[in-house]
DNA sequence: GACTAATTACTGGTCTGACCATTGCACCAC
DNA sequence: GTGGTGCAATGGTCAGACCAGTAATTAGTC
């Protein structure tokens, strides 16, 4: 039961642990992309595991495409780290921030259609659920003094999800979902900013109210119109935010040129 | 260099090969989902490899989530085979064939918007490319006596891709692309049927011509309208095809009840 | 007889040390 | 310089041993 101290801090001698420790070393920059790792024999000594366990650990990293191995040569850290492998579209965001607005454009289209279909096809149960989600969100936004932005974002998301689900088109729900995930993972900080300011927040609240009313009333064209307006507003707000941060960056650059 | 004959047919004694052979056995139904595999020792004998290599092979299957392993118990074939893991949406198609029309609904929306934007934003270079793709497709459809359906489908796809790319919205292009891939992977056989019949083929040709003309002329609203009409036609044709095959199935059932 | 505890015969997990196969480099003859 | 040759390093595979969980059987108890 009692292990030598050094081994305890090193963790268990299991392949999973080996892979995790090596991944940590790579993420910390000890081993850099393109670089040749130490030989298996050396890594065994350094990580205090047998070669069999080490090799299974390397196998894990290889299957995650974190390293590449050539017999007689060694293992090299792959140049594309998994951070960039989250989604095919992720590349775009890293290369061209402008893609954000392309995404919003597509999302507006889908969000508008889902509101339209929800108003048209939504059952009474759908409407009850939509209203409940709306009330949860609106109550929290109005009554809470100190707002937890993350929670508000979740409630917001739940409301829109309920609307899209009332469209009774799972493909639409899924596509919208994946685009929203992509959006939030890339600009969650910016979205948080929107909630923090009372001006935008109130505008968003009003639009949500109108969207809810139109969908529940079954006014399909109106629902689509409101949804499009909603997304247009958000796009506008994000544009302003971007321009603002650009101004800040530029002034910071003047202060500290490189 | 000279291996015993038996080993040569078994293949190399490498973990990758072990994984491939086991996967083959699972796909062939020798080992069924939920079933417990033979113990590592037995598999070693049967596959004529050392336990170290076998374990690395099992590690590969585990990382692909084809098997699950518990110490002291054994390795079981996962109940969800990788065939169903191609895409989150794939589940839907397997469970509810009706999803096909949901997909076509979303695709019509995106295709319409992409035609609209292409007509609006397309550069002269875009138009040249769209025309070229259109001509390649139309020439092949008209002049070829015996039509290679797969080739025609590729040309068709290339034409629509050129249109969507002229929208200058990479997110739209990507989303449309993934939906199209999903569609073709699930109902490629049905799509082939459409091309085989001269009636539907000529209708599709006419719609392509009108779509091309509207986009190149920059008539955005008209382009959207034609694209929507195009997708509506295809949906209708697929519906008819489905009803037809259902009739066939039902009559077959009467012949051979079970 | 019914329940609990110990036994035991499995299972996967790890370790060791050896040998094989490929690579790349230093060396050497031409 | 050029082209072979050998050697030392690498990853790949192997065999056998022991550790560590699991589960069914058995022995013991009430």
Automatic annotation (TrEMBL), chains A, B:
It comes from the Bacteria. NCBIfam families: PRK09990.1 (NF007442). Gene3D superfamilies: GntR ligand-binding domain-like, Winged helix-like DNA-binding domain superfamily/Winged helix DNA-binding domain. The keyword Transcription applies. Keywords: DNA-binding, Transcription, Transcription regulation. PANTHER family: GLC OPERON TRANSCRIPTIONAL ACTIVATOR, TRANSCRIPTIONAL REGULATOR, GNTR FAMILY. This is Transcriptional regulator GlcC. Residues 12-80 form the HTH gntR-type domain. GO terms for molecular function: DNA binding; DNA-binding transcription factor activity. InterPro entries: GntR_C, TF_FadR/GntR_C, Tscrpt_reg_HTH_GntR, WH-like_DNA-bd_sf, WH_DNA-bd_sf.
